[in-house]
Design goal:
The complex is a heterodimer of chains A (about 100) and B (about 170). In chain A, about 45% of the residues lie in helices and about 20% in strands. Chain A is α/β, with parallel strands linked by helices and about 100 residues long. Chain A has one domain (about 1-95): Transcription Regulator spoIIAA (2-Layer Sandwich), CATH 3.30.750. In chain A, the strands form 2 sheets. A 4-stranded parallel beta sheet of chain A has the order 1-3-5-6. A two-stranded parallel ribbon of chain A has the order 2-4. In chain A, α1 (about 15-25) packs parallel to α2 (about 45-60). The longest helix of chain A has 17 residues, at about 45-60. The two termini of chain A are about 15 Å apart. By secondary structure, chain B is α+β, with helices and mostly antiparallel strands. Chain B has a single domain (about 5-150), classed as Heat Shock Protein 90, CATH 3.30.565.10. Chain B has helices at about 20-30, 35-55, 115-120, and strands spanning about 5-10, 65-75, 80-90, 125-130, 135-140. In chain B, strands 1-2-3-5-4 form a 5-stranded antiparallel beta sheet, covered by helices on one side. In chain B, β2 (about 65-75) and β3 (about 80-90) form a beta hairpin. In chain B, α2 (about 35-55) packs antiparallel against α3. Classes of the chains: A alpha/beta (about 100), B alpha+beta (about 170). Chains A and B meet through α2 and α3 of A and α1, α2 and α3 of B.
Chain lengths: ~100, ~170
């Protein structure tokens, strides 16, 4: 399953992103891909939502893969030192082929 | 605020307006001379500070007021040598010494905002604001000397020569 949010994921937008991810996990997919190619900005509520998704993925044994990050979004993962915690690849094709 | 700022944004503590505040900061930072990546990170730091005011200061009460004051800092040379952003509120007061980022070794949702603010900005000062509210003063300096160039972060402008320029991280 691929979740591909669009636009900015800040404090205001993170709850909707959380709902999408939860609905995705509810379908018990083989793998969850968060394709961030359409995400122009992310702040810590967006990060927190992805950390929650990671915890959910471990609990359900559904691998979570993140792809499509632009450099701005990547920077916040690095500042928060979360870039080593997630499985991050470049493109959706790479994420699906894992 | 010790000197009159160039610009003051007054907003209610409604998350719907955060996008406007961060876009304003992003544009001003670029106008002052910060590269796109740093302007975005300054906007991120301000966004995180505003989120903390809304969430912890006003406890999501959307009628609280917040002031964001922005002033380019004038150095010895031509043009600005940095940006000062001061955020004030009328929310509950906390001991400034108790405002700390959490350990990053603890992988869990939340609690990263203060860490990001301190990581991005060069100066960060929390103070009680008289009888009510808090004041957060932040400074980001423009670095034009060659020695500072390697501090470029991922996402630096194309052609900078320091940017990692790599979108993958296996």
């Amino acid at each position: 399953m691929v979740i591909a949010p669009d636009g900015e994921i800040g404090y205001h937008e993170a709850p909707a992103f959380r709902i999408f991810l939860r609905q995705g996990f509810d379908q018990k997919p083989k793998r969850m891909v968060a394709d961030l190619i359409g995400v122009s900005y992310m702040s810590t509520p967006g990060l927190a939502t992805l950390v929650e998704a990671l915890q959910q993925s471990k609990k359900l044994s559904i691998p979570l893969v993140i792809c499509g990050m632009n450099d701005r979004v990547r920077a916040i993962f690095e500042i928060a030192r979360l870039h080593t915690v997630f499985k991050i690849v470049g493109t959706r094709e790479e994420a699906i082929s894992l | 605020m010790s000197a009159r700022p160039d610009l003051i944004l007054e907003m209610v503590a409604n998350p719907a307006y955060l996008c406007g505040a961060r876009e304003m900061i992003n544009q001003i930072a670029k106008r002052v001379g910060f590269p796109d990546s740093q302007a975005c990170q300054i906007a991120l730091a301000v966004d995180e500070a505003l989120i903390n005011v809304i969430r912890h200061g006003y406890e999501t009460r959307a009628d609280g007021r917040i002031w964001v004051a922005v002033t380019p800092m004038v150095g010895n040379g031509e043009g600005a040598d940095g940006l000062r952003v001061v955020i004030e509120d009328e929310a509950k007061q906390v001991d400034p010494g108790s405002i700390r980022g959490r350990s990053l070794d603890d992988i869990r949702p939340g609690g990263l905002g203060v860490h990001i603010i301190r990581e991005v900005m060069d100066e960060v000062l929390y103070e009680k604001r008289g009888a009510v509210g808090m004041r957060l003063s932040m400074v980001k300096r423009l670095r034009t000397d060659a020695a500072a160039a390697p501090t470029c972060v991922p996402g630096c402008v194309p052609g900078c020569g320091v940017s990692e320029g790599n979108q993958t991280n296996g």
